[in-house]
Write a structure and sequence with these properties.
- The protein is mainly alpha-helical.
- It is built from 14 helices and four strands.
- A two-stranded antiparallel ribbon has the order 1-2.
Length: about 280
Amino acid sequence: MIALLRRLKSSLFFPAVALVLSTVCFGAQTFLSADHPTAPSQVQNPEPRSPATLTNEERADIFMARKSYSDAADYYSRALKQSSLPAHQSAVVWNKLGIAYQQLEEYTLATVAYKKSIKADAGFAEPLNNLGTTFYMQDKYKKSVKYYQRGIKLKPNIASFHVNMGTADYRLKRYKEAVDEYRAALTLDPDILTEHSPTGTVMQTRGADSKFFFYLAKSFAIVGRTDEAIRYLRRAFEDGFKDQKLLAEDPDFKKLNQNPAYLELIKNPPVPIRD
């Protein structure tokens, strides 16, 4: 049981460019989060626990690890019926319930759960971020921005919040704002936009277009990460990016004019890969 709990991730990505759901604590293991930026203390040789001693919340966490989201939602709901839950713990469980519903694409139920989490603890930023992802997944980008902004105001140092905000800005064609948010995310967590982050999150790019990769490359160029900038610019070309004027006039890419790999890429861009 404990092993299953430990396989849970602190952040969950959704298949729409790059969206991150936030949790704080699952069951017996405290995970990497805004409040716990470093790995928790190791417990040597933990005693196995009998299933009979698990709380409803811990059972739900196990079902989440197994991706049995309906069962997880059932047990989180049972946990919330306990009148003894303090306000913040109630908020945490409501947030988890929202994630379970969101994984089931039950967005109305997820929205209700997240709003109850926010009501239980107005200083809890994670459900604000998650509510933003719920609206994003329904293509309600302006609404998602409103909640991302509120989450960032409470906790400005969470890289994933800025990633989500940047993604919503991109969908609203607010490209400068999107780049600013990605730059903020990279400053807070240099690995947040790479394929393998130490927090266990994974960059998803399904649904992205060539211009998205151009602006992602620009974000890396701004923070001086030339290799990643060139790699994502190559991906933009492979996906059909053709706006040479935009590229030539961009001041952040002009910084790469002395880089041989960049000059070779511009001189001989790859042929777009067609589906």
